[in-house]
Recover the amino acids of this structure.
C-alpha cells in the first residue's frame, strides 16, 4: 500500500517558498490576480466616492485639506515640481540669507522662490514685492537700470 502512495515530504519554509514562487509565476494565476485586483480597486474607488458624498466624508475631507500635514505636503510637492527643491533646501537658503529678503533685507511675511525663467536656476528667496518687481521687469537688468535712473532723475 505504501508503495502505491507517494511518500509525504515534510513541509519546510524553503519548500513552501519554492512552491509559492512557482505557483504565483504561472500565467493563469497572474491573469486571475490582475482581474481580481482590478475588481478590488474599482470596488474601493466606488466606496470612497460614496463616502465622500456623505456628511461625515465631507467633514473629513475639509478637516484634511485644512490640516497642517496636508498643507506641508502640498507645499513640498509644489517646490519639488516647480523648482526641484526640498523644504530643507528652502529652509537652508532662508538661513543663509539670515531670514531676510535677498533684495530689500526685510523679514518677509510670505517667502517666494526667485528663479531665472530662462534657465530655471534658483537664485534665492525673496519677499512678495521684490519677487513681483523682478517679474514685472521680466528679469531684464537694463530695464532695472533704466528704472533706477528714472527714479534718480525725478
Amino acid at each position: 500500500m505504501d508503495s502505491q502512495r507517494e511518500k509525504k515530504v515534510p513541509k519546510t519554509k524553503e519548500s513552501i517558498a519554492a512552491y509559492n514562487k512557482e505557483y504565483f509565476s504561472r500565467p493563469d494565476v497572474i491573469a486571475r490576480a490582475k482581474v481580481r485586483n482590478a475588481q478590488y480597486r474599482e470596488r474601493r474607488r466606488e466606496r470612497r466616492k460614496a463616502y465622500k458624498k456623505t456628511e461625515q466624508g465631507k467633514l473629513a475631507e475639509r478637516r484634511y485639506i485644512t490640516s497642517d500635514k496636508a498643507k506641508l505636503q502640498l507645499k513640498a510637492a509644489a517646490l519639488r515640481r516647480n523648482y526641484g527643491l526640498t523644504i530643507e533646501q528652502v529652509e537652508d537658503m532662508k538661513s543663509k540669507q539670515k531670514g531676510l529678503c535677498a533684495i530689500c533685507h526685510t523679514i518677509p511675511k510670505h517667502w517666494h522662490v526667485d528663479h531665472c525663467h530662462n534657465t530655471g536656476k534658483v537664485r534665492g528667496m525673496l519677499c512678495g514685492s521684490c519677487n513681483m518687481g523682478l517679474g514685472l521687469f521680466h528679469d531684464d537688468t537694463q530695464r532695472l537700470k533704466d528704472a533706477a535712473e528714472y527714479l534718480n532723475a525725478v
DSSP finds seven helices and two strands in the chain. The longest strand covers residues 122-126. Strands lie at 112-115, 122-126. The two ends are 114 Å apart (CA to CA).
